[in-house]
């Protein structure tokens, strides 16, 4: 790392998430983007127009392992994550990767093994690692305010898939790498795992028309039942995660709105008394991880636990329909 202690960052993948992270990193006090890569000329030109002072390349390898790079942020399609991340870690680069960790479970395990062998910082970009609503629920449950945790429910609905901001990424629409289970449910599975521990799949039903159109599953975190459902239909877009407690229950909607309930209904909880949590904040957390400090980010091991749940839903469903 060079003397001013800013992390010299290579960025791979300039789709919706890559551009958002590039925007957050461009003037960040903890990182300096030294090279951004995408094999698509159109993607590069969009980002170059917004950041004409940055260096761009069509070669991901240059951004992953080139001279002058301390760490990399990977936002390429999920099927490329393992190759990019493992190559970077073997070259001694810290890695901040978009979710899902991978789509192949063997590759996910290889990423965790490479992270352990290299000893470099590794993190996955789950947005609920630092969203204020999730942080408040985590603190409340750990303080015993929920009482006994009786169950968790996750519900998602989409009027179309992929969503409008993802339409340029063809892979998001297909079952091989995309779908709302990997793209959306994984964030809430991560939150549940962080609160209650590893999840096992009891049963699953997933219907496809390209990517998922309907999904329902029962999971378990130890003795705690966890229910998941999602659909693409003529409905408003919605995201809802609820933890049911014997003393108090908690509900997060729309990623950031928090409510709590006792016996007399739901009450909004203010969440503006601390950092909201965004790409800029998670970049700062990643810089701390690179410096060897404790952070709120999920590491690859946590990402693999989430990946196992999501991919098991697909595998279990295929086994049931043979």
TrEMBL record:
<dbReference type="Pfam" id="PF01408">
    <property type="entry name" value="GFO_IDH_MocA"/>
</dbReference>
<feature type="domain" description="Gfo/Idh/MocA-like oxidoreductase N-terminal">
    <location>
        <begin position="7"/>
        <end position="121"/>
    </location>
</feature>
<dbReference type="InterPro" id="IPR036291">
    <property type="entry name" value="NAD(P)-bd_dom_sf"/>
</dbReference>
<dbReference type="Pfam" id="PF22725">
    <property type="entry name" value="GFO_IDH_MocA_C3"/>
</dbReference>
<dbReference type="GO" id="GO:0016491">
    <property type="term" value="F:oxidoreductase activity"/>
</dbReference>
<dbReference type="InterPro" id="IPR000683">
    <property type="entry name" value="Gfo/Idh/MocA-like_OxRdtase_N"/>
</dbReference>
<feature type="domain" description="GFO/IDH/MocA-like oxidoreductase">
    <location>
        <begin position="136"/>
        <end position="250"/>
    </location>
</feature>
<dbReference type="InterPro" id="IPR050463">
    <property type="entry name" value="Gfo/Idh/MocA_oxidrdct_glycsds"/>
</dbReference>
<dbReference type="GO" id="GO:0000166">
    <property type="term" value="F:nucleotide binding"/>
</dbReference>
<keyword id="KW-0560">Oxidoreductase</keyword>
<protein>
    <submittedName>
        <fullName>Putative dehydrogenase</fullName>
    </submittedName>
</protein>
<dbReference type="InterPro" id="IPR055170">
    <property type="entry name" value="GFO_IDH_MocA-like_dom"/>
</dbReference>
């Amino acid at each position: 790392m060079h003397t001013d202690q800013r992390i010299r960052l290579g960025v791979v993948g300039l789709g919706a998430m890559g551009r958002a992270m590039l925007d957050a990193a461009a003037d960040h006090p903890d990182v300096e983007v030294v090279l951004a890569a995408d094999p698509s000329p159109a993607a590069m030109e969009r980002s170059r127009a917004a950041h004409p002072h940055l260096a761009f390349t069509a070669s991901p390898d240059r951004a992953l392992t080139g001279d002058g790079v301390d760490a990399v942020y990977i936002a390429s399609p999920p099927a490329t994550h393992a190759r990019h991340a493992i190559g970077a870690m073997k070259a001694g680069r810290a890695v901040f990767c978009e979710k899902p960790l991978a789509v192949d479970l063997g590759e996910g395990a290889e990423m965790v093994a490479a992270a352990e062998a290299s000893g470099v910082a590794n993190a996955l970009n789950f947005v609920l690692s630092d969203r204020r609503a999730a942080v408040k629920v985590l603190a409340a449950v750990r303080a015993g305010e929920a009482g006994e945790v009786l169950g968790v429910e996750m519900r998602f609905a989409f009027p179309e898939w992929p969503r409008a901001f993802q339409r340029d990424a063809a892979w998001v629409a297909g079952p091989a790498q995309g779908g709302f289970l990997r793209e959306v449910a994984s964030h809430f599975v991560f939150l549940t795992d962080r609160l209650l521990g590893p999840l096992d799949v009891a049963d699953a039903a997933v219907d496809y028309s390209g990517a998922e159109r309907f999904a329902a599953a029962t999971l378990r975190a130890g003795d705690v039942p966890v229910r998941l459902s999602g659909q693409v239909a003529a409905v408003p877009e919605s995201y809802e995660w609820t933890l049911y407690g014997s003393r108090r229950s908690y509900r997060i909607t729309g990623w950031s709105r928090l409510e709590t309930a006792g016996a007399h209904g739901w009450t909004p909880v203010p969440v503006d008394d601390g950092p909201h949590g965004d790409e800029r904040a998670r970049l700062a957390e990643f810089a701390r991880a690179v410096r060897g400090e404790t952070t709120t980010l999920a590491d690859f091991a946590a990402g693999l636990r989430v990946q196992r749940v999501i991919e098991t839903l697909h595998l279990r469903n295929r086994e049931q329909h043979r």
